[in-house]
Amino acid sequence: MAKITDYLGKKYDYYQKVEAGQHRGEKRQVWTVDVSELPPLHNQALWTVLKTVVMIVSERRLWNKTTTEARFYLRSLSSNAETIALAIRSHWGIENSLHWTLDVTLSENKIRIRKQNSPENLALLRRLAIILLKQEKASKQSLKMKRYRAAMDNNYLVQILNSAS
54 - beta bridge partners? Predict the structure, then answer.
């Protein structure tokens, strides 16, 4: 109810997407509001390119458990809820795909390095390795097999490193 009363008299855009399958369902609601419709932000002069505030409320049902999550985004693009919802969904699809690849190819979820900058440094190196393995087109092997072959064959490793140029 607070969402409805907060938006009374304000111009906003709304989009909703409902997806279901295999004992689960998700409803995503997206509200976008032009910054000019809102009260002034703290230090608004510093936010020169800010045009839109976005709120996404996701409700997920898996078997008999329902979870709700609200996320907020600040955008430099105009207020179009459907376009923004599709862009954010696309981004997370790419992100989820990358995490799956990192886990399957490099067993990232098993790594327990936690000290100082080590986690960030190794995450960067793992992502670089995935990019290099994907750029090597001479072999039709899976990324995991390319990685294994590079570990066993220095000439192939050099070939992968040279494919970056």
Answer: 32, 73
